[in-house]
Design brief:
The chain is an alpha+beta fold and about 170 residues long. The chain folds into 2 domains: about 20-110, Winged helix-like DNA-binding domain superfamily/Winged helix DNA-binding domain (Arc Repressor Mutant, subunit A, Orthogonal Bundle); about 115-170, Dna Ligase, domain 1, CATH 3.30.1490.190. It is about 40% helix and about 15% strand. The protein contains 5 helices and 5 strands. A hairpin with a 5-residue loop joins strand 3 (about 120-125) and strand 4. The N and C termini lie far apart (about 40 Å). The structure holds zinc ion (3 copies).
């Protein structure tokens, strides 16, 4: 039985936050989520991991690895690429960051996905914001379509480009 996720849970951020929203709160909330998750798992959010996540939390648009490096370098010494990649790998393994394949970029995640959850990335072509939707119905449809041809899906992800609710107005 898949649990249906709802957006009305208290404190759940909007999928597409309005322009001019209190983003400081968004990013500090997300950092708090990351810290809590790391300590839950007995992992350490080291300073480079925190810096990389902080760069991704600067806004709601995905960033490429080099852009992340540039941003981290603005606040301190330039990190080696391998250091940034390792930090990204750690953040991905702990469900704090997703990779957006079609953009070759990364985006911070504040949701907790169950294993085998299908994540639908909604990518706005105008502002570049990436929202997430998760649907157990889509997940089971994809699973049965794959099973019908004897395929075992590992990390099902769907990327949908379009126009977000704010860019679509006016
Ligand atoms: Zn925000
Ligand atoms: Zn996510
Ligand atoms: Zn938009």
């Amino acid at each position: 039985m898949g649990r249906t996720k709802t957006a009305h849970d208290k404190g759940e951020p909007a999928v597409f936050p309005a322009p001019g929203h209190d983003h400081d709160r968004c990013s500090s909330d997300a950092m708090a989520v990351a810290e809590a998750r790391c300590s839950e798992r007995g992992q350490r959010l080291t300073s480079i991991r925190r810096d990389v996540l902080g760069a991704l939390l600067a806004n709601h648009q995905p960033l490429g690895a080099y852009e992340i490096m540039e941003r981290v370098a603005r606040a301190g010494p330039r990190p080696a690429p391998i250091t940034v990649y390792r930090a990204l790998e750690f953040l991905r393994e702990n469900g704090l960051v997703h990779r957006i394949e079609s953009r070759n970029a990364f985006v911070a995640c504040v949701h907790s996905h169950a294993d085998g959850d299908l994540v639908v990335f909604l990518i706005c072509e105008r502002c570049g914001t990436v929202g997430e939707a998760s649907s157990s119905e889509v997940a089971s449809t994809v699973k049965s379509a794959a099973a019908a041809v004897g395929f075992t899906p590992k990390s099902p992800v769907i990327e949908v480009t379009g126009i977000c609710t704010h860019c679509g107005k006016g």
